[in-house]
Amino acid sequence: MQEKRITLRRLAAVAIAAGLPVGATAPAFAQSDPIRIGLILPMTGPFASTGRQVEAAAKLYMAQHGGTVAGRKVELIVKDDGGTADVTRRLAQELVVNDKVAVLAGFGLTPLALATAPIATQSKTPMVVMAAATSSIIEASPFIVRTSFTLPQATLGIAEWAPKNGIRKVVTLVSDYGPGIDAEKVFVARFTRGGGQVTDSLRVPLRNPDFAPFLQKVRDEKPDAVFVFLPSGVGAQLMKQFTERGLDKAGVRLIGTGDVTDDDILNDMGDAALGVVTSHHYSAAHGSAANKAFVAAFGKANNGMRPNFMAVGGYDGMRVIYTALEATKGAGGEALVAAMKGQSFESPRGPVTIDAQTRDIVQDIYIRKVERVGGQLYNVEFDSLKAVKDPGRGQ
Ligand code: VNL
Fold first, then answer.
1. 369 CA → ligand 1 middle, Å
2. pLDDT tens across 18-38, in order?
């Protein structure tokens, strides 16, 4: 009875926050009700590839691990926010109030995660960030757990590799929002510390970027390399303009985080991508048995599609949720967040831990080079930094 009253009060609080009449809340769940997981993703619009990858991976995890947890059916409710924060927030409210989800998950871009964080806090609903990667997201709510990565984490590898490998002068070029600013900040700090020099820092708009004027500027400045962060799915466009503008012939190298040579689009980039060195937490070419099985199963379930780093964030996110639900016997709220903290397991990307203090993911970061393997382009890993924590805050 006590528990039921708390739950009703909680639902009423959410209804008020959502601007809905309090009477709209339904009674608390019974043991026989399914456990619902609300997965909010950009399934349409410019970032639809992220939605497609995360959804496919979440469904693969469920197909492999069964549709019940702690004796209750698990129901995945997928919602399309089109990549717009107002829509994400509204969908999250509806999922909490109407569908009574135990977990909110997904979040393809930083602004979408930030817009939802207050709802997670108010309703005490665990929120698993499977894609977005600005360092500060984790601080937006004590109910957030992250299974993707952070840009500072991914940037470290290439920022340390470059000055040791003949790259002395760099221009940075990033998307002008959270993850891009994180990447720029960490790259400049670490690359400079390693003896390199950043001669210019360019920021391109997140939406409909025209790279031409920026790449022209890079060409005129003739650095040894341009360091790039662009969100998943956009890299092919940059690569095309990079060659069209003759930057490769002018001797400018392209380096970046692995978002730019995203496995989802890499194979279509053609020879221009060969030799591009990036650092990241996941490559479809990762050599472990666990990854080989993951890539094969993902391809089989999705018409041969290759999983990218977004897919692995979704797959591991479902694992963290399933494991935590087993531990709490289906209970949600604070107990469920507590059961997510400290989980350690072998992901297709390699060993990972959900840091018990920060709730953020700790993982290996690999240095990779684009090579042709068996007729296809892959990010081939050749070095790694072990168990990297997000270095973003206090950088
Ligand atoms: C974000 C970060 C989005 C990295 C991305 O692709 C990405 C973000 C959509 O935090 O917004 O590759």
1. 21
2. 444 444 444 445 567 899 999
